[in-house]
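Anyone? Bumping this.
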Amino acid sequence: MDNAKTVLPKEDNDIVIELRDITKVFPGIIANDHINLQLCRGEIHALLGENGAGKSTLMSVLFGLYQPEEGEILKNGKVVKINDPNDANDLGIGMVHQHFKLVEVFTVLENIILGVETTKNGFLQMDDARKKVMELSENYGLNIDPDALVENITVGMQQRTEILKMLYHDNEILIFDEPTAVLTPQEIDELMAIMKGLAAEGKSILFISHKLNEIMEVADRCSVLRKGKYIGTVDIKNSSKEELSNMMVGRDVKFRVDKDEAKPKETILKISDMCVHDHIHNKDSVHNVSLEVRAGEIVCIAGIDGNGQSEFVYGLTGLEPIKSGKVELLVGDQMEDITHKSIRYRNTHGISHIPEDRHKHGLVLDYTLEQNIVLQRYFEPRFHNNGFINFGEVRSYSEGLIEQFDVRSGQGPITITRSMSGGNQQKAIIAREIDREHRLLIAVQPTRGLDVGAIEFIHKEIFRKRDEGAAVLLVSLELEEVMNLSDRILVMYEGEIVGELDPKKTNVQELGLYMAGAKRQGKETH
Amino acid sequence: MKEFLKKDGTRSLIASILCILGGIFVGFVVLLLLAIFTKDIPIGQAFQGLGIVLSGPFSSGRNAMFQLGNMLFNTTPLIFTGLSVAIAFKTGLFNIGAPGQYLMGAMAALIVSLSIPSSVVPPAIIWILALLAGALAGALWGAIPGMFKAFLNLNEVIVCIMSNWIAANVVSWVFADSKFINYAETKVNFIVKTETNNIATPTLGLDSLFSGGSVKSYVDISIFIAIFVAIVMYIIMNKTTFGYELQACGFNKNASKYAGMNEKRNIILSMAIAGALAASGAALWALNGHQDFKWETYLTLPADGFNGISAALLASNNPIGVIFSALFLKFINVGGSNLAANTAFNEYVSQLIIAMIVYFSGFARYIISVMKIKGVEKVR
């Protein structure tokens, strides 16, 4: 703990929750190693750490989902035993999980009162509940529609529903597990305001995150975990991003990776007039998109989520059929039309694809890490003899990648992927895709859910691939990433490319205007 | 020892044994309660009854070898239907269509083995052709729900259940008024035995070994075929790229598609393999030579088709485990029949006890998950 320092709350009676020496062990890994944490009344206390540092585990202990092997939890100075989330709820502890726990086919109101319904003769009394919910909603600026079905509302409103649920249950201590991971930038701003409002009303908030900007903006204090160990607690007012990231990673981190000038060479990918049809809404989700990506450059498709980027990538990689247009890829030394080729053909002829949704597309969660690492390569001669899997080769290959990309897991190559932390799952996918031979790397939100150390590493890898002559097509929602990484920026708005920008000559504001559809090249704005 | 206990295989085995013990215990309680509350049955018979059930064929004294032989013969179809369900489970599909596939297999095998005159074609060739025809019929019948699942995303359970009854009616319809009906022995509810066409699975003297005096049992080499197939299925699922692909598609269709696998083809293949397995069991049963196949199948579906689910569950879907779970289920079954024969308990009670054990076999997965949690707690 070279640079650790701990700031204590001013008065002892301020402390609402105290965790003392919490230790939680999983097979092969000590997730929490004697962690101490003190949460004061009315503060926003950030919990910072790399992927797999043990933040979520610690909060699960506090919420009663896990039982610690050692240590104790104190509320208002008294030792309490939290056996399950019901106990936590009784103690006034509420939690918004990373993946929401809402009943999709219920309305917002029904979800909020779920578990504490007021009934009379077996019939629901919704009117009182509705009144209380609406009051809470107004007091805290949580803008919700009580009668909308959860499956039809935005992720942001779902999150506000979760927050209201905690408030309706009269929770005092609110745990937010990486709440911003799923939100758009505007929704993040709203959430920050809501959190500040809650703290001002005397609620105590534990805020798990690895996004330093957010912590700097909203938190009062921040406790840092690294590899399961408690590093220290700092006062945000007297701290900096650099100090926090240093505490988190254990070394200095560059937020912006230095890169050389791009030296684009031959065209690797050429897309002409691609249209992808959305059958549900009966419109084109991708409309007449044409672009080229050349060897040795990073082209970034920027845009607000839901403007056709996902569909565009599906069309390009063959996951969904396209309506019209042409996709050409440099195979050998000739451009080849791959519009109607199979996914396997594309995979084996130079396309690597880091998918947007790691659980849906990227991984077979019930397979082991090593089985996932050979997901697109198991049929290569190296990995089998006449159809029998060459287990030794699979093992040594995956161990190599795990080492090289620092993929952390409980049992190494034989860890079931489902049990790994999200960030390490992402690292496994990135390791697999970057290591496969490719000329075109399609990276969709490659650093989603990763901490700064891992982001730095992945950005470096992407630059390395570019400098080795790969064409990189990056799809990202993070403006900072777009600005740092790309050599050319294409902005996508409502399924069309509305502008091509040079990151050296533009700024975030201009980019934002294009992304919001307020500005476009080639056509008059209306 | 600790490492041994943590292995998945060990856990499955322990879970299966616990399930069996639980089933036996509850079955015993039923016997005990019946003995207490029924005037005619002394309480001592409950203990005696338990002993009879647990001794399987060995409770029948001098008939033991004969019963054991028949038990081995009857286990063959159950191993096959158990494998059918287990393989489908491993690839993410619930094959409740085993009864229908079983019927189609029996039908195809019987038609081929009875239609080709053994005076023209050597019986061994006919036997092989009939087995292949049975497997093929089952594969096609299984592929149909697979196609519905792959192309239309219809739940295979629903399609399988319907395909069962369609198969049952197809079989009755094909055989009704056909030349295959056993008029000679005036057993008009049954199909002619294949031995009338000199078709019978070789026994290698097993039937004489397992006999009650001069009466031979039905046992033939099909039990070895079943064990061999189980081992082959184990190897395919766990050691080959083909099995890797099938299971990947079962676990996550989208990721398999992303990885360039043909996920639709694999779903259909999984169901076809499952169907071929169930049907092979039926074909081997029919080709024994001495069996009467009741052709009015539209009234009931073959029990072995459904019992395959129990065999698979009890074995935690491990193909090797299915051999043992099927043997055990048949063992208990014989014990149950002997219970009815030798005590005051009637055959319904013995069926009830078997049902209890089968019912408890469904808890195998639950017990494994509990063990995993406990295992986690113990590692410090």
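Late reply, but here is one note on the structure posted above: Residues 193 and 218 of chain A are 8 Å apart (CA to CA).
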